[in-house]
Amino acid sequence: MATPIAEELAKKQKEISVAEFFERNKQILGFDSLTRAMLTSVKEGVDNALDACEEADILPDILVEIKKVEKARDEYNIIIEDNGPGVVKKQIPPIFGKLLYGSRFHAIRQSRGQQGIGISAVVMYAQLTTGRPTRITSKISEDRPAYQADLVIDTKKNKPEILREETFHWDKKTGTKIELTVQGRYVREKRQSVYEYLRSTAVVNPHARIVFIEPDDTKTVFERATDRMPKPTVEIKPHPEGTELGTLLKMGKATESYKLLSFLVNEFSRVTPEKAREICNRAVVDEDLRPQDINREQANRLLDAFKLVKIMAPPTDCLSPIGEILVKKGLKKEMKADFIVTSTRPPSVHSGTPFQVEAGIVYGGELPKDQNIQIMRFANRVPLLYQQGGCVMTHAIENMDWRRYGLEQRGGSGIPVGPAIVSVHVASTRIPFTSESKEAIADIPEIQTETQLAIRECARKMLSHIRKKLKLAKMKEKEEIIRKVLPLIAEKSAEILNKPVPPIEQVVAKIMNSIIIEDSISYDEKKKVHKIRINLTNYTPHAKKFKLGAVVPSDAKIQNIEPKPEKMDHVIIWDMKRIPSTEKRVLGFEICGLDRDDYDENELYVDGIDPELVSGAEEWDATAFEEKSKMTEKGEEEIESESETEESKRTEIKEETEEKAGRKEETEEKVTEEKIEVKNVEKKIELESEDKESKKTEIKREEKKEETGKEQWELEKKKDETKKVVKEKKGEKTEKKEVEEKEEEEVEKKIESEKGEAKDSKKAEIKKDIKEKAGKEREEQ
Amino acid sequence: MTGEKKTEKGKETIQKLENVASEVYDRLMETQIPFVSLPVRTKKNIVFSDRHSVWKYGDTMSERTAKTLDGAYMLLRTMYTIDFIRKQINTKKSSTLREMYYISEGWDLAKFHAQQESDRLIEDMEIMTKGMREDFKLRPEENGASIIGNITIEEVVRTGAKRKINCRDDIGDAGYTIPYNVEKEKIKFKDWDADFIIAIETGGMFDRLSENGFDEKSRAILVHLKGQPARCTRRLIKRISEECKLPVVVFTDGDPWSYRIFASVAYGAIKTAHISEYLATPSASFIGILPSDIENYKLPTDKLTDQDIHALKSELSDPRFKGNAYQNTAWEDEIKLQLEIGKKSEQQALAKYGLDYVTDTYLPEKLSQIGLIK
What we know:
The complex is a heterodimer. By secondary structure, chain A is an alpha+beta fold. Chain A is built from 25 helices and 24 strands.
């Protein structure tokens, strides 16, 4: 009898080795061209090194060296050395010599590791293209010798094979060093080069120091900008929303829980026993079912139920954004520019996955004015250098009208033209890449919205910077007129006519027609004191009075305010009494205890005067000011928690809500009974309130056109956060779960009632917290 | 007698200049921002003067005010220039425009950064004082071009002697060179025997016509324009045309720049529109090369450059070329035709048909078209 064809096929199938798989999927893995292969090799090594250092809480000190192999065409030695914790001897072979081996594959947390295909693929690539083994050197403790191994991968079995090993003294505390030889091509000028990758990496990893030695021995040191380690990332359980069928079944098999109910509570994030019960009821699956026994049918019903039951959004404290100040520092040290502005959005969620967006704009300096702006994209602190056009971050930029922010843009969409770099960093527990090569993020509407909000905040500041510069240039010209040219005109005309020289002070005031505010910052390195001086001249033909405000960081000590201010909060406010035409005033203050870079631009505002008359200060815009003070707070706490301030605000609101609704608390059980009913009402409320919210926010942001739809989602998010606060406040007291849910609903009822009252324009006592919540835009209404 | 006259003229000029300074001074005394008003000197602000049949500046005024940096510097330079001219008149000296530009080097902040700036300011001051730069004792660097033809000129030469020169018999092959001052006190026309004046753009064609004896055969006075003609060349053409009652024809290349040369001879140049009535000869006719000539005579051509095209388009919005009311050439149609064919030709391209073609065929045909010869 003939062998079945399947058997024959099976023989062949076995022979498809890892090597072949690799060969066939080169482009997916990032080795499709010689240039890119070089970049991918370095990238994997450096990402690994950074991750290892962070996990061990060590400030990374990384050396990257590329050397041309003599007499070999397109062959290079790559050495990547770090000061991380090292790798124990036993783990070296699998980590470096086995494809798809790693600790991070299943973990739900923000890490670089999920980025690429791993260092083992590089080892494989080196072996396949040059036939050379990879040398790993590792030292895990100061009092132990270093271990070194030369290894190759058995491509048939996907197993590591040690060719040589030894131990020796290595003059280094701890660390890992990889040396391999790959076929590649070294370029420097291109945007997609090793140099650019390392420079970009240095921008988003300001805590890392990277030394780079190029084939021609050029040595570049990317110095660290901060000694603060990024906030460690936290592993979280998967959130029901966004869970897929296979994952659910797999989790069911793997769990240690005995019953479906406890499985849901223990293995998922944000699932309370009540919610779990509700899920089981909705899915019509027995809550005592053994999780291992869940069948496909039941799993599908459970997934449906996940969507129907309202489950709190996943925690977002697992994310580790870089932070506004550090993004700024990172950009500053690698870019030469006039102006850098950054912004970090509060964390957000899409399909059960937390994410957070940070943006920065670098403007002016030597950047070309007549070319497209540069876009720097980052995902979990890793630069994305390829597939720019297919990335949500790029799309977010293209879909903004940049003309309103002072850049050129044909037709109001597409990549704008101007001397600017826009950088965007998306941090998430799971970055939704468009493909396996992980170079572009998919078009998730939530991510696009957040990206635009972050960029807009920067763009607004950029615009006011551009305006300020233009105004300044104009003032400089006028100064030239009044200081140099006009006196000479007066002199010469008098000389010609043989008459006395006419006085020109009044004419000077008419020409300037402006209050000139000149500010300066000097820094005393020893005392850590910023000294701020503000010179103010009334170059208008009339006497003027107005208020002047200077925004100051709230965490720093402010002293020696001259003259005595009217008010001092996040803002120093001076009441400038009548200043006669052509007279001067001098003001000043000092900030103690900040680093030089923490305060590098004064933010001055004027009120009670036509801002057009003032050069050197912005119009007092209540909205902008609010933002400012929020930012300052954020800046100070950026490492601890980016959204703390916003959340604490909501907590206040909540507390008030509690007081107001105090009587309801007494009828707690009743509320519970009414729960389902309330839920239905809630849906309606939600729709209505979203509607209103969107109208309000429209006013707040001028970008009416672009905002549509976004606001609704914003509201959702706000609610999620509010709820989160509620939970975190009461979280420990698990027995009060019902109270908690009731409270959630109250928050929503509260929103509704606030709106109702405001609509009836009753100036109730509630107004105060409405304002805090919805912002001042309502007042404008 | 003449000396006294000159001093009087000088006094008048000084008075006019001091009036300008006064305006600025008085404004300062009144604590007002000083400024001077000048007509806008672009093609957008030229209008046809029915009285003189030439194009002059319109009513659109621009203020040069000390409010702007450029305006302030302009005022300052005006003060210095007034001072300089006043001294020059008082010391009975004269200087070239270029010399004045170099003299401004010593004016510190008020110095000019290019001769163009100082030339332009002098033009502005002509407007402000309603005078001519000759009154300021300023003259251009270069003299005018040449004349060949049967006309006798009496020139007061530098020694003060009067000298009669016949522009056919008393000169060499280069012709009589037009001095920068061609006013009556300097030049008078004594005798002439010619039917018309032909103004020619290029030296090559001027020499061709003279070598072929066109002046004698066709009873013409040849005037070389040397590209964009100097003020004195245009003034002389106008004076001969008016005082000797001779018609004027202009013969240039067939490109946009040449049309502007014709316009400055016939209609008045934009830069000197304040004195168009002195310089322009409204009766002048254009005898090519026109775009239609390029086609009709099948002339060798060059492609229009981007600048050419830009210049042509700009001429379409130049009121002097607009419509056909004041001129005998259908400029709009011709310019559009040229844009369409995308070609230009030089007058010397006529040599394609032999060296005599221009004098034997082309010019006679053209001149008979406008009725100058039969």
